[in-house]
Structure to design on (406 residues):
């Protein structure tokens, strides 16, 4: 009777500890929210550099019209060389911008790995496998008749199951506790990165770069037409090219606007994520932000791909 | 936004306007070959200055975004360090199981 009561007390104690650990873990919806945030980061990070790449390409194309309008052939060659060098430099700047935003992607991926169920589930699998291996060892030992009486079979396997469940719960708790800590810590830093990006995109710099392209394109094309007035052979292609470039110039301000919107939404979503993970708040606001964020990024994707 | 950064944006637009003027004069049919040559030379110099400013603007933007991400990069490394540590425990237990 005493042994039974002792066993019941032990089981109740273990169960209480496990329940406490389970309560401190993130809910399935919170983990899914992290996954969605990670996906959004993965989609978003390459779009800011698109603005710089597009400006570089428009400048390059416009440069061809300008170079062709020069009379002196040596000046034409010098200008083409300078345009090429400048274009490569501009692409390097765009790549640096990309590299900086990859930090955001790197953080979100690290977070995803931290909250992934695979690690804590695999610990359970490993412990259960260890239990089975120990039982197999016991069975083999019994066959060899090393001991006077057979060692009990099945205890290692069943104990390992309980230990595995405990190990899973503890590791899951640890992962989620760390995730909560890191998301809180990261929130200020994510806001800083996004704020810097938004500030750069909304700066007079970018407006001046866009304005420069919009104003210079028709001027350069006009001089190109004037200097090639006697060569109508490919004039329609040139007109077509000019209109394509004009359309791309016109889209720049829209792209700038949507990138800013998506960036701010990303920052807000991360803040909601941090709040929901720490205060166990209702997920309604977070889910709403995530939905809008995914829509913003789809809109951005549509603009850029068209 | 710093005064220097505003200055670059203002200078870029000033050069854009200047280039518009020069290009417009260059395309006039009434100018002499000498004048045309001189205008072409001026136009090329302005284009060089335009490229310089655009390059400076690009460098400043990429630097400011890079600076803002340094601490977040450190935090990502910290998170990866923790996950690597957790994986090591799993592989140690797995090795023991395989040995058994």
């Amino acid at each position: 009777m005493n042994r039974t009561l002792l066993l019941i007390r032990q089981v109740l104690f273990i169960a209480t500890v496990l329940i406490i650990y389970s309560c401190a873990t993130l809910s399935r919806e919170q983990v899914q929210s992290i996954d969605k945030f990670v996906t959004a980061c993965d989609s978003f990070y390459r779009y800011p550099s698109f603005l710089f790449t597009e400006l570089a390409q428009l400048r390059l194309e416009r440069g061809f019209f300008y170079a062709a309008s020069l009379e002196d052939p040596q000046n034409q060659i010098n200008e083409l060389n300078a345009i090429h060098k400048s274009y490569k430099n501009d692409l390097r700047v765009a790549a640096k911008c990309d590299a900086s935003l990859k930090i955001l992607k790197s953080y979100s991926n690290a977070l995803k790995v931290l909250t992934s169920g695979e690690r804590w589930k695999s610990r359970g699998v490993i412990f259960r496998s260890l239990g089975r291996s120990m039982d197999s060892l016991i069975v083999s030992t019994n066959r060899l008749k090393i001991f006077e009486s057979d060692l009990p079979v099945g205890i290692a396997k069943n104990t390992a199951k309980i230990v595995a469940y405990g190990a899973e719960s503890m590791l899951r708790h640890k992962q989620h506790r760390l995730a909560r800590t890191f998301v809180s810590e990261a929130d200020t830093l994510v806001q800083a990165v996004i704020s810097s990006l938004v500030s750069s995109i909304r700066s007079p710099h970018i407006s001046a770069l866009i304005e420069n392209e919009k104003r210079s394109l028709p001027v350069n094309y006009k001089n190109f037409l004037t200097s090639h007035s006697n060569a109508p052979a490919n004039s329609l292609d040139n007109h077509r090219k000019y209109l394509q470039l004009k359309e791309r110039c016109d889209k720049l301000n829209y792209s700038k606007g949507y990138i800013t919107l998506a960036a701010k939404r990303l920052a807000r979503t991360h803040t909601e994520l941090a709040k929901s993970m720490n205060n166990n708040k209702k997920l309604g606001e977070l889910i709403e932000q995530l939905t809008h964020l995914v829509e913003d990024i789809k809109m951005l994707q549509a603009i850029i791909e068209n | 936004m710093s005064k220097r950064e505003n200055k670059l944006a203002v200078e870029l637009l000033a050069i854009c306007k200047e280039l518009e003027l020069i290009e417009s004069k260059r395309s006039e049919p009434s100018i002499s070959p000498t004048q045309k040559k001189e205008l072409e030379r001026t136009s090329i110099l302005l284009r060089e200055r335009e490229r310089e400013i655009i390059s400076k603007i690009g460098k400043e933007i990429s630097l400011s975004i890079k600076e803002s991400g340094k601490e977040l990069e450190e935090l990502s490394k910290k998170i990866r360090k923790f996950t690597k540590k957790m994986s090591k425990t799993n592989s140690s237990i797995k090795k023991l199981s395989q040995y058994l």
About this structure: Chain A touches chain B through 72 residues (CB under 8 Å). The longest helix of chain A spans residues 155-201. DSSP finds nine helices and no strands in chain A. Chain A has a mean pLDDT of 83.
